[in-house]
Structures are given as structure tokens and as C-alpha cells.
Fold this sequence. Notes:
The chain has helices at residues 25-41, 60-73, 89-101, 112-119; strands at residues 4-10, 13-22, 46-56, 79-84, 105-109. The termini are far apart. It is globular and about 35 Å long. Helix 1 (25-41) packs parallel to helix 2 (60-73). The protein contains four helices and five strands, in the order E-E-H-E-H-E-H-E-H.
Amino acid sequence: xxxxxxxxxEKELLKVFAFGIADDMEETLDYAKAIIEAAxxxxxxxxxxxxxxxxxxxxxxxxxxxxxxTRKAAPKVAQVAILVxxxxxxxxxxxxTVTNNQGLFMFFTSDYKAAIDWLYK
Length: 121
């Protein structure tokens, strides 16, 4: 199954709702680029990605490459909170560390309120 997604906007907040399986590097990168393009289009400074129904299955090497490629494509214009299924949270700690080390401002959580609070702190 591929990644399916839709966008909604609420003032400066871009909301992304995604589901499917993120197991292909190119497709996952296309998904990230679509988010970046939407953020630029809607002039969104804050992004909330609801990925509670998206399974993340990239390996360690692809995760590092994905973070690097995303960093190249993403201007430093937004904070990104990613809402994930609680069962995936431990697996995404590594990605959060890698992306933050690359200069992207990302926060992974399974708690909606924590995601919103982080975006508006």
C-alpha cells in the first residue's frame, strides 16, 4: 500500500492526514516534498502531520538518507509535529534525533495536545 494523504489549513497551521505504509524511500520523499510545497503554498509556519494510520518501515540507512534529502528540500520556515500511533513512537525516536541534528524542527508524539502545545510554545 502506498502513502495517501490530504491537507487542511487552519490559519498558519497546515494539517496533514496520512495513511498507508511508508516503506519506499522515493515515495516517502515525494510525500515529504508534497508537505513542503503545501506549507509554502499556504504560507504555513506550523505543520501538524497526523500519521497515526501510517506505518513507518524505512530501514536505518534509508532513514538517515531520507532526513538528509528532506533537509535539502525543506526551507527553515516551519515547525513540524508528527502525531503517530503509540506503537510506532519508539521506532521514530531515531528519526527525530537525525532530523533535529540536520536542522529540521520536528517533534514526534502520540498525544494530540502535546503536538499542539509544542507547535505553539
